[in-house]
Write a structure and sequence with these properties.
The chain is of the alpha+beta class. It contains seven helices and 22 strands. The N terminus and C terminus are likely disordered.
Length: 299
C-alpha cells in the first residue's frame, strides 16, 4: 500500500511540507506555530498548537521523591497547549480553543474562516481551553453551536470567585448553547454523527473527552486527562495541584487508560507534546506508556 500524505503547515515560513511517511515521530516536528492534519476515516483532524512552556514538579501531587528521581530527574516537564479541528463532510468542529494566541492564524493556515466553524466542543472551561472564543468581549465564532457538559456548565455558572471568564463565554454563546450529559467510556453519549461524549470528571467537575469515529476508525480527544506525560502514564495516581478533585482525576485517568488500551483507540491530548496524538499501551515495568505518532494512514 502506498504511503499516504501528512500535511505539515509551518506558518513561520509560510510553506507547505509534504511528508510521505506513515509514522512521523513527534520530536521531528517543531511544536511552535505549527498545524498538522491527519486522516480519520472520512474525516480529517488537525492539531493546532498554541505554544507552551516547561512546568515544575511542584505542580504534581502524589509524586514521591523516588517517582521524581525515576521519571523527572530534571524536575520539569513540557506543558504545551493544543486544540483540535475536525472536518467532516458535513461539519467543521473545533474542540477547545486554547489561550487564543495562535488560533486565528492556525485556522487561516487551514483556510478555515471563523464563521465557517459549525460546532465547538469544550472538554472543560479553564482559561487555556476557552481563551480563543472571545475577542473584545464578543464571540469569535459567530455561527458555531457551543457544547458544554451539564456538570461543567453548572459549576462555572455558580463559581463566583474564578468563573468570570467562563460566564462571559457562556453568555456570549447563549443563543447557540447545548448542555449535555456525557456517558461512561463503554457507553458514550451521542452528540451528532461521528461524535460521542465520554465523562472524564475530576480535573474539573464536568471534564469531558470526545470520541470521534468514522468508518470504524476512532480517536479519543481527551482534554486534560494527562498534563505530565513522563510521570502520569507510568504512574497515573499522580495528579496536579490544579485538579478540582485529585482523587477522582486519578481514578478517571486509570479508567480512560484501561479503556483506550483494551479497545486500541488512539488518543489526542491538549497538553501532550505536539503533535499530541499517539497510542497508549501497557507499560513494560509499570502503569502505561505513550507512543507519539503523526499518522498518515487511516486510524
Amino acid at each position: 500500500m502506498p504511503d499516504k500524505i501528512c500535511y505539515v503547515i509551518m506558518r513561520s515560513y509560510i510553506l507547505l511540507f509534504i511528508v510521505s511517511v506513515c509514522m512521523l515521530p513527534a520530536s521531528r516536528i517543531a511544536a511552535q506555530e505549527t498545524v498538522i492534519t491527519y486522516e480519520l476515516g472520512d474525516f480529517t483532524v488537525s492539531t493546532l498548537s498554541d505554544g507552551g512552556q516547561n512546568a515544575g514538579s511542584d505542580m504534581l501531587v502524589g509524586a514521591t521523591p523516588e517517582i521524581l528521581k525515576t521519571y523527572l530527574p530534571e524536575g520539569t516537564f513540557p506543558l504545551e497547549i493544543q486544540s483540535f479541528l475536525v472536518r467532516t463532510p458535513d461539519r467543521t468542529v473545533l474542540i477547545d480553543a486554547g489561550v487564543g494566541t495562535n488560533l486565528s492564524r492556525n485556522l487561516q493556515s487551514l483556510e478555515v474562516a471563523e464563521d465557517g466553524v459549525h460546532v465547538i466542543l469544550l472538554t472543560h472551561m479553564h482559561g487555556d481551553h476557552i481563551g480563543g472564543l472571545l475577542r473584545e468581549g464578543k464571540k469569535v465564532f459567530t455561527k458555531a453551536e457551543l457544547y458544554v457538559a451539564k456538570a461543567e456548565y453548572d459549576y462555572w455558572v455558580n463559581e463566583k470567585e474564578r468563573g468570570a471568564d467562563a460566564r462571559k463565554v457562556l453568555e456570549a454563546y447563549r443563543d447557540k448553547l447545548h448542555v449535555f450529559v456525557p456517558g461512561e467510556p463503554e457507553n458514550p453519549a451521542a452528540l451528532f454523527p461521528g461524535f460521542q461524549a465520554v465523562a472524564a470528571y475530576g480535573h474539573t467537575p464536568g471534564h469531558t473527552s470526545f470520541l470521534i469515529e468514522s468508518r470504524k476508525s476512532r480517536l479519543l480527544i481527551w482534554g486534560d486527562i494527562v498534563h505530565s506525560t513522563p510521570i502520569q502514564f507510568p504512574r497515573p495516581e499522580v495528579s496536579l495541584t490544579v485538579d478540582y478533585d485529585r482523587r477522582e482525576a486519578a481514578e478517571t485517568r486509570k479508567k480512560i487508560f484501561e479503556y483506550v488500551t483494551k479497545n486500541r483507540i488512539r488518543v489526542a491530548g491538549a497538553h501532550i507534546k505536539f503533535p499530541a496524538i499517539g497510542n497508549v499501551t501497557a507499560g513494560k515495568k509499570e502503569g502505561y506508556e505513550f507512543t507519539a505518532v503523526c499518522t498518515c494512514e487511516a486510524i
